[in-house]
Amino acid sequence: MKKHYYVDGEWKSSNKYTELLSPHTKEAIAQIPQATLEDVETAIDIAYETRKQMAALTAYERAAILEQIGQLFMDNRQKAAEIISLEAAKPIKYALGEIDRTIETYKFAAEEAKRLTGEMIPMDAAKNGANRFGYTIEEPIGVIGAITPFNFPQNLVAHKVGPAIAAGNTIVLKPASQTPLSALFLAELIDQTALPKGVFNVVTGSGKTIGDALVKNDKVKMITFTGSPAVGKGIQEKAGLKKVALELGSNSGLIIDKNVDLAKIVPKCVMGAFSNQGQVCISLQRTYVMDEIYDEFLEQFSTLTNQLVIGSPDEESTDISAMIHPDEQARALSWVQEAVEQGSKIISGGTIENGVFLPTILANVSSTSKVSCQEVFAPIVVVNRISSIQEGISAINNSDFGLQAGIFTNDIQTAFKASKELQVGGVMINDIPTYRIDQMPYGGVKESGTGKEGVKYAIHEMTETKLVVWNQQ
Ligand code: NAP
After folding, report:
1. Residue 132 is part of a domain; what is its CATH number?
2. Active site residues
3. Buried (b) or exposed (e) across 124-152, using 16+ Cβ within 10 A?
4. What is the mean pLDDT of residues 311-334?
5. 377 lines ligand 1 (CB under 6 A)
6. pLDDT tens sequence across 178-227
């Protein structure tokens, strides 16, 4: 089926189309228009022209539009989930979960639109501030260029589109080449709302070809990017003086203390390591378990992992399906082989069967093996033995990344120490690092990025703070 991209409230065709293949069946599922550099420029011009109209909407109107988007997702929950499942091979139960989160994200954006306030400044607290009255206003920044990844094609788009609308901005969205259908479905829904035409635009095509047109254009005032560290760094270098928010990857770690109830923890670890085939930026990648319970943990973890249902993404029972691309599966396999050559032991999986990379547990992994020190982004988890909590903290901090980390412990001193010493954007006490809800501040340190998402925080990034000072003479 030939798709169209969406600019100025109109569906546009292109001179060039590429075939979108299902990661699961490898069959063609759609023909996707490849926007040209001129097409991107046109979209930016439209978003630029519409920015004043958008900025003039009241908070009440912006909130009502966001509520409407949320409602449309509720009405189309199943369909929206099936699109994710089809283009990303996300098992349908997780795709439905993503739509439920998407609804919440737009709901939070609607609520935040109504409390976008500045603050009073106590001017007379300064020696020279007498008789002045000061306050700030959060003004929309203008055109936002949003570039999004394949792994949460609806909710991670919502984390950019929701805050951008709440703040009164206009948007040009470039979704991942493997998951354009979700973004185009969002355009279909937004088209039914009162959002002025031209405020929300979607251009489809390869990031390598059209990315620069978005990143370098002076009319775009902010780039909000979620994706890999390599692409993020390139964007930062090219963006010049415009604002850039980068939500990048990680190799998230978890510490498991000796005094914990494994029966409660192990199912969470299985979910954290393998949901969406491990293609989650906060997927549980490195697990450090205290010596006293290491063998028991490994046994329970591999038993539950081996019970995961491998199959087609559209089956309700499926836990694990194909990764996003065969090349990615081949890369992941070569990383497992490297780890084994460097002394790791395969506890579960470690192979590709019927086109699916099996959930893989590796023990005794060197910190220099790629499966440990790079972002694996595959259903692979490292489980290593530690003899002290300090060893686990040091191992987690020995990373180029720092998005989230977790610790399971019943000792409050240990929990407090971990919360202070882990060098990450978020520490989860008695949870896996994969835990996220959509209104919490979210974003990493080191090579995991800059800037925070989590609706309220993204809105703040997407506004300019203007100070007003009245001299009362
Ligand atoms: P990716 O390859 O970096 O792609 C992300 C987006 O960037 C896609 O839309 C891509 O377009 C585009 N792109 C590629 N080259 C570009 C360029 N030169 N200029 C501008 N845009 C360009 O990442 P992915 O494989 O889709 O997603 C996985 C990564 O995202 C992982 O590293 C994961 O950790 C990270 N992630 C982070 C978070 C977070 O919140 N921190 C959340 C989810 C995912 P094409 O698809 O056309 O190449």
Report:
1. 3.40.605.10
2. 247, 281
3. eeeeeeeeeebebebbbbbbbbbbbbbbb
4. 98
5. yes
6. 999 999 999 999 999 999 999 999 999 999 999 999 999 999 999 999 99
